[in-house]
Amino acid sequence: MESPADQIYIYIYHEVIRLSQFNQKPHIDHLNAAKHILRYLKVTKNYLLKYENISPAIQVYADADWGNDPIDRKSFSGFTFFMASAVIAWSSK
User: Fold this and answer.
1) Residue 52: partners with Cβ closer than 8 Å, 6 or more residues away
2) For residue 47, what are the domain limits?
3) pLDDT digits (tens, 9 = 90+) for 79-92
4) Strand 86-92 to strand 59-65: parallel, antiparallel, or no bridges (unpaired)?
5) Rounded to the nearest 10 degrees, what angle do helices 28-43 and 4-20 cross at?
6) Are 16 and 37 in contact (CB under 8 A)?
């Protein structure tokens, strides 16, 4: 089972990818969102991932959103691999 910290970092990764779509013509809202992420990372920089050997199996989660974004209608998909309650690999496109 994934921990709340694992879930948060996956969401941050997704939000950074979303913000990168606006690198060419950023708006003040995008700058504020980037600052919010950076402030969160600064506050949590000393947090540690705790590896527990509670599940010997690798867990895989995948999700996709096929063009439901009302802004640009781009599709997103991604996956995350967990081992010992920690993320060992992920991708988001």
Assistant:
1) 84, 85
2) 4-92
3) 888 877 777 888 87
4) unpaired
5) 150
6) yes
- For 50, phi then psi, to 5°, come to -105, 120
Q: Residue 78: which of 2, 8, 17 has the closest Cα?
A: 17
Check the CA dihedral 75-11-62-20 and report its sign: positive
Total number of domains in the chain: 1
For 12-56, write each residue's pLDDT tens digit.
Answer: 777 888 888 888 888 899 899 999 989 988 888 887 766 666 666
Q: CA-CA distances (angstroms) from residue 70 to 22, 64, 66, 87? A: 15, 15, 11, 30
pLDDT of residue 21: 84
**β-sheet bridge partners, residue 65:** 76
